[in-house]
Amino acid sequence: METYITYRITTKSTRVEFDLPEYSVRRRYQDFDWLRNKLEESQPTHLIPPLPEKFVVKGVVDRFSEEFVETRRKALDKFLKRITDHPVLSFNEHFNVFLTAKDLNAYKRQGMALLSRVGESVKHVTGGYKLRSRPLEFAAIGDYLDTFALKLGTIDRIAQRIIKEEIEYLVELREYGPVYSTWSALEGELAEPLEGVSACIGNCSTALEELTDDMTEDFLPVLREYILYSDSMKSVLKKRDQVQAEYEAKLEAVALRKEDRPKVPADVEKCQDRMECFNADLKADMERWQSNKRQDFRQLLMGMADKNIQYYEKCLMAWESIIPLLQEKPEAK
């Protein structure tokens, strides 16, 4: 018997292509994966938002654990909102079906839909054509994506190492605090101060646990999403290169037989139109992606700064709170 998680999706819309003002459906991860594949097929010139990794979410092995399900829910929700905010993808018929169909499997079994044929034209453009060189603006985009993914990958690895060290430190603190509490039972006059130190270490442990959870649940997922985003952008850039290579090859073939056919063939003009469409859509999506990235990372870094400040404030407050307790005893004692 197969066991899996489903997510309830509620959609409210006033668009004319929706028959009802509100829908509520349940979808599993593989349905989201189907949607993304369909968007790639039918909208090959556009950047499709990435899905969270199928098996690795913040290092949790148990895919039925509460932490895994909640982290994935947030990521899938962000995936749908990215599509909804896109001026082209949000009107895609497959997206409409995903949000409204009660039986999505029946729709999947219908086979290749007409809209998918648009993507097939790009699939037929294989590596048989060799690109001479990218235009400077797209070469710059490719270089930027390579560097961006490299930097984020380094930050992600270091952040995971920091989290691991924080967890190890947290384990030590949880063993460290009770020692003072046990010791207090053997000391009459020092019992109260020792209990105070134990409580203080316990408060610091709680603050550290909250900081670690914030890093794991809020910081790392954004890094990984944008690493996957850069891969998606590279994929679109590669498709654009294939169309340009095809256009260049067809143009060269026409030039060789120019004396026989002075007029540019229709298939060459069609290929040129497709390349220009790719260029326009890619540049528009890149600009939109950069805008979203600036906003997301501004919020991410500000949130990280606030969480760290709160952590140190809680630790400082905990240690300051026991100072009067330590100063209560007469100096002679």
Automatic annotation (TrEMBL):
MF term (GO), any: phosphatidylinositol binding
Presence of keyword Hydrolase: no
PX domain ranges (all copies): 1-106
Source species, domain of life: Eukaryota
CC per GO annotation: early endosome membrane; phagophore assembly site
SMART domains recorded: PX
Topology class, membrane: Peripheral membrane protein
Subcellular location: Early endosome membrane
GO biological process: autophagy of mitochondrion; endocytic recycling; piecemeal microautophagy of the nucleus; protein transport; reticulophagy
InterPro entries named among the record's database cross-references: AH/BAR_dom_sf (IPR027267), BAR_dom (IPR004148), PX_dom (IPR001683), PX_dom_sf (IPR036871), SNX30_BAR (IPR028649)
Keyword tags: Protein transport, Transport
A Pfam cross-reference name: BAR
Subunit structure, interactors included: Heterodimer; heterodimerizes with SNX4.
Family: Belongs to the sorting nexin family.
Protein name: Sorting nexin-30
Lineage: Eukaryota, Metazoa, Chordata, Craniata, Vertebrata
